[in-house]
Amino acid sequence: MRKLKIEEMGRMSPEEFTVAKKRRIVAVLDNVRSMHNVGSIFRTADALRFEALYLCGITGQPPHSEIHKTAIGAEEVVAWQHFDNTLEAISELRGRGFTIWSLEQAEGSVKLPDIGKTIDPLKPIAIVLGNEVSGVQQEVVDLSDGVVEIEQYGTKHSMNVSVAGGIVMWELSRLRPIEDEV
Asked: What is this structure's pTM?
């Protein structure tokens, strides 16, 4: 087995990515403190062709060297918008017809393997990813249409936000086709 060279992978140019159809999924970062986590989520959003990232509250914004270190340029092609607080972002998304899901451990949460039974794959989806210490704010959870949870089996009560976000972002992308694939 031979590793592929970059030129063999058929990746889009930044210009092609900008005009390409996207998945109607927005990742909402609710006060994510680490610029490296923000950059990693940008990179995942690029890889999965998400519509946008909404950076809320204290979440860092490009241009920033620490975001760039992990995003490696994804922050230059993935659409993003900053909101002073996450509630404003939720309101804007709901006004555009998005269903709002938070990634959190909560009463009545849907386990990730079951989310496909719960969401409408043709309706736009927003996934809220929370702060590294306190998670998604309770008032944001209260406004969510649902809460998705990644089951965990070890001693820690949570995963790194960019890792957990990547897992859920991948699963949502599997369930939500790119616009021209519908």
From this structure: 0.96
